[in-house]
Design a protein that fits this description.
- This protein is an alpha/beta fold and 345 residues long.
- It is globular and about 60 Å long.
- The strands form three sheets. Strands 3, 5, 6, 7, 8, 15 and 16 form a seven-stranded mixed beta sheet that branches.
- The longest helix is centred in the middle third of the chain and has 11 residues.
- The N and C termini lie close together (11 Å).
- It contains 13 helices and 16 strands.
- The structure holds nicotinamide-adenine-dinucleotide and zinc ion (2 copies).
- The site of nicotinamide-adenine-dinucleotide has 30 residues, from helix 1, helix 5, helix 6, strand 10 and helix 9.
Length: 345
Amino acid sequence: MQALVYNGPGQKNVEDRPKPMIQMPTDAVVRITRTTICGTDLHILKGDLATCQPGTVLGHEGVGIIDAVGAGVVSFKPGDRVLISCITACGRCNACRKGMYSHCATGGWILGHRIDGTQAEFVRIPYADTSLYPIPDGADEEALVMLSDILPTGFECGVLNGKVQPGSSVAIVGSGPIGLAALLTAQFYSPAEIIMIDLDDNRLAVGKHFGATSTVNSADGDAAQQVMKLTGGRGVDTAIEAVGIPATFTLCENIVAPGGTIANVGVHGIKVDLHLERLWSHNVTITTRLVDTVSIPMLLKTVQSKRIDAKQLITHRFKFDQILLAYDTFGKAADTKALKVIIEA
Ligand SMILES: NC(=O)c1ccc[n+]([C@@H]2O[C@H](COP(=O)([O-])OP(=O)(O)OC[C@H]3O[C@@H](n4cnc5c(N)ncnc54)[C@H](O)[C@@H]3O)[C@@H](O)[C@H]2O)c1
Ligand SMILES: [Zn+2]
Ligand SMILES: [Zn+2]
């Protein structure tokens, strides 16, 4: 089969690989029909994640059709259409029993990281019963690819942890796919204000179209002042960090209102200052989370009922033999205006 293989920092190739086999009775092998590229795949290619060994097939998102199941799989059979969670869950360890699948003792984020991932014709999924979701008849499979990672991440790490409330004020720092997913799912709770902040005017325009009440371009360095002006000097009840660099976390510290919450989503590679000399008296909460994907079944219903239009996040489509072009397009988002790219097998 054809697969996109990480061969060390800066190196990726389309290679011919043997089709994966069932290794454990709880495994399934899925024939991928649609997958996508995540910012995290670019992090791996930069060499930021030493835990990903050269030779690994990348990708942790996608939908497909069950090709084979191990003897212990009870919920799926060959031919079933499935959505793949970016998080693998055994369903039985302490973390899984708490719904914290991201910290599953033998799973978690392993796909396209510690084991071969979804940017291939076939993928082996461990713990298939608890790591795959059935696709309802007639569902739009392209839209469902957004449920593997992007929508649960924006919702769980940003909106739920950030305690977005009816009538509250929200600022989302970073208007990439994750920030936009937080924007779409924050609207379940009808906040009064949602301010999108980014350096890229195109992404801010997308944010406006997706329901932001205002946008702030932070290139001038006065984003905090602009947010204060928009909120009558109070700041925001929820500040969602969806970039992953010190400057944007500091911005959240500067715009959170007394009693508010900073919900960190971004993956941080270097240390960030915590300004307790100011925040100690502000009654604020700071949360962090690796996505658990426990919200996939709920989000699936909201996509099915058209409460949210997940497909809006898709800007480009490629066939699998164009996957290198897909990476190029996704990697140059400022020029290509790419958000999510679909790769069809
Ligand atoms: N916690 C989790 O479980 C989890 C899961 C998936 C992704 N992530 C992380 O979420 C973050 C966002 O992901 P994404 O795919 O949307 O990334 P992305 O790179 O596509 O988007 C980031 C956005 O931030 C903007 N930005 C950069 N510097 C900025 C600044 N100084 N001020 C304002 N905006 C700035 C960029 O223009 C871009 O639009 C990444 O760090 C990613 O690794 C976390
Ligand atoms: Zn991802
Ligand atoms: Zn587990």
